[in-house]
Amino acid sequence: MTSTQHVRVEGSSYQRGRQYGRQAATRVRLSVQAYQQTFAHYAGWDWPAVRREAARFEAPIGSVMPAYLEELRGIADGAGLDLADVLAINVRTEVMYAAKARQAPTAGKLPAQFSQPAECSAFACVPAPGQNDPVLIGQNWDWLLHSAQTLVVLEVRQDEGPDFVTVVEAGLLAKTGMNAAGLGLVTNALVTDADVGEPGLPYHVLLRAVLDCTTVTDALEVLQAGPRSSSANYLIAQAGGAALDIEAAPGDFTRLYPVYPEDGVLRHTNHFLGDIHPADLSLWAMPSSVVRLQRLRAAATARTLDDFGILLADHADYPHSICAHPDPAAHPCEQGATIASVLMDLTARRIWLAAGNPCQVPFEQLDIAL
What we know:
Shape: globular
Number of strands: 14
Largest sheet: 8 strands, mixed
Strand content: 15-25%
């Protein structure tokens, strides 16, 4: 299974989830199987333990964002799985990065020999006021190798809220994407010493919630809707010209840190750029982040989709480059690569996908109707 599956759904929250789960059942089940091995490696948990941990997130999601819990329930029913199985893969960030944080070095303690693929290199480009250039946004999504087999393009028509499209692992609610209101979202993993897996609103639920927003301000409000369980970076732009990068640590609104465009461009990888309250563990956890950010900044004149397409195929510091490739020295469960590269023109509501390394796979425009 190597091709990307295009899933189209419509209706109520539960109906959409059920259609998604049914259409992508093989890939959803493969996601669950793959994460059983992944969680065992990173957290030392068997699947019953993972399911028990995931069940702790049901109440926080249901109390603040019940529609997304219904979507998750629908995905599980459509794929013939239990809700706990689908919850488990949707909180994979909380489980894995909490495991990472617990192994972080402390004073007098040498760093643990522990590796994890960095999750991603992202950008947005907006015109100056009064200019008519398109609003562009995109990223390389780098992750574990098994996710290349579970990649789906999920196109959603909603009874309430804007229609949207997201490029995501099968069974997860959302990842990179854009909606009919012209709002686009790209994202990066982050990790702090506050990432302890405390139940709250999970990363992938919040990504889904952002895609229901029509403005950047709406998205900032959504990220404050309830206690967040994990660190993450949300880079958001809107076709009208607004763009904001929001670095988030676990907790409430006091742990959101905005980053603003420089010369109309936002660039982000896998470490905090703001002055944050918890300790940033990102450079220890994902050391390739600093070089990838340097390379994003080195392309200071990039302003077109072609420019950014070339940038996302950059191989400086290979294999830990923007266009990431497996490190043969890494444990098989820790090897990662660029799974998908995404470019979006929010002004034109168009999206291009390279399903794999963009140095090897051409970008193709997706057939979507937003």
